[in-house]
Design a protein that fits this description.
This protein is α+β, with helices and mostly antiparallel strands. The chain has nine helices and 13 strands. A five-stranded mixed β-sheet has the order 3-11-12-7-10. A three-stranded mixed β-sheet has the order 4-6-5. Strands 9-8-13 form a three-stranded antiparallel β-sheet, with helices on one face. A hairpin with a 4-residue loop joins strand 11 and strand 12 (278-287). The chain starts with a helix and ends with a helix.
């Protein structure tokens, strides 16, 4: 029996040596490859988790907006001669399954008129086919090319229903917009181009407006000093393309009763509200002699578009003061999307980026 046990032990040892020779190294190699693949997968996952899109909308601490600053940083103004507006001889048409939405608005407007109430005015507008950015040859200043198509206010209102269900169950947002490519959108979804102006009085107070509850779009929200939509009828004399500085001056006159010789005006940036597809040219205006009290007196004697504003506040035009005003608990969730970015860029233009960023960060930390 002892001999048999010894024989069995010898056989087991031999089999162990054979098994190790044949299988141990391949198993170790397989385990090493598996660990390597797993490590690469985990590192790749971490990289994906840590990456962020190059395009991010404007935010300031807890204040998050849908305003995407496409061109301009506030530091260097964009010269009028470097902005090229092209009006295409084409009119925007809605897709067949959205055309009925425009008809609904037209019917509603007629009903309001018959009832003696205020109808929805169908003003001629422009839609943005594209906005392209390049650089001038020598100084490398920004050069902007804007291509526009004709549209109207009813089409704009229909296209604003971005989350309304279409017959196939999709929405205009899900069907036509790519969140990873915010600048790509069909013209019929971009039927709004406006100018927004940050106005500072001669005694260094920023003019901040609150929209009336009676306006159809964004009632009751806090907004820029001046907000003026581009009109195809008013801003395109004859067959000329609209001039953005002229649109801004018209807004200054209609909303604040200011004439062009009373202020300086610079173009700071082009900004897109990616949530609603509204384009804006952001301007900064500095009143030469008119103080806040003088502006109040001026407006008390008549303003063309007085009905658009519910209140007007005057805020010391210093970075910390403006940041506190933006982030106040009563206002932080009541801003028009494009206004906070406008005020930030205006501050940078006047005070410089570093002091503005430092002051804003201090205000955010103290919240």
């Amino acid at each position: 029996m002892g001999g048999i046990d010894v024989g069995n032990g010898v056989v087991g040892a031999v089999l162990g040596i054979v098994f190790a020779t044949l299988f141990q190294q391949p198993l170790q190699d397989a385990w090493f490859r598996l660990r390597k693949r797993w490590g690469s997968a985990v590192r790749g996952l971490r990289r994906r988790e840590e990456s962020s899109p190059a395009w991010r909308s404007f935010s300031l601490g807890p204040l998050h907006t849908s305003a995407l600053i496409v061109e301009g940083d506030g530091d260097v103004p964009i010269a009028p001669e470097d902005v090229h507006v092209h009006v295409l001889d084409q009119e925007v048409t809605l897709p067949e399954d959205m055309a009925g939405w425009r008809d609904e608005i037209e019917v509603e407007s007629e009903r309001l008129r018959v009832e003696g109430r205020t109808p929805v005015w169908n003003g001629p507008r422009y839609a943005v086919e594209s906005l392209g950015i390049s650089r001038t040859a020598l100084a490398e200043h920004p050069e902007v090319h804007i291509r526009l198509k004709s549209t109207d206010y009813y089409t704009f209102l229909a296209a604003q229903q971005l989350d309304r269900r279409l017959p196939d169950g999709t929405t205009p947002r899900s069907r036509y917009l790519d969140p990873d490519d915010p600048l790509a959108a069909p013209a019929f979804l971009q039927c709004s181009f406006a100018v927004n102006v940050a106005v500072v009085t001669a005694d260094e107070l920023l003019v901040v407006t609150r929209r009336s509850e009676r306006v159809r779009m964004a009632p009751g929200v806090w907004n820029s000093s001046v907000n003026e939509g581009m009109s195809r009828h008013i801003d395109s004399a004859g067959r000329n393309a609209p001039d953005l500085h002229a649109v801004a001056r018209r807004g200054m006159r209609e909303e604040l009763s200011l004439e062009s010789h009373e202020y300086s005006l610079v173009l700071l940036a082009f900004v897109l509200d990616v949530e609603r597809r509204h384009w804006s040219a952001h301007f900064y205006a500095r009143l030469k002699e008119l103080t806040s009290e003088g502006l109040r007196d001026r407006m008390s004697r008549g303003v063309a578009d007085r009905w658009e504003h519910q209140t007007i506040d005057y805020v010391p035009f210093r970075p910390a003061e403006v940041a506190r005003f933006l982030l106040h608990a009563d206002r932080i969730h009541r801003w028009a999307p494009l206004a906070p970015a406008l005020f930030h860029l205006a501050l940078v233009h006047v005070h410089g980026r570093t002091p503005v960023e430092r002051a804003e960060a201090q205000v955010v930390r103290r919240l």
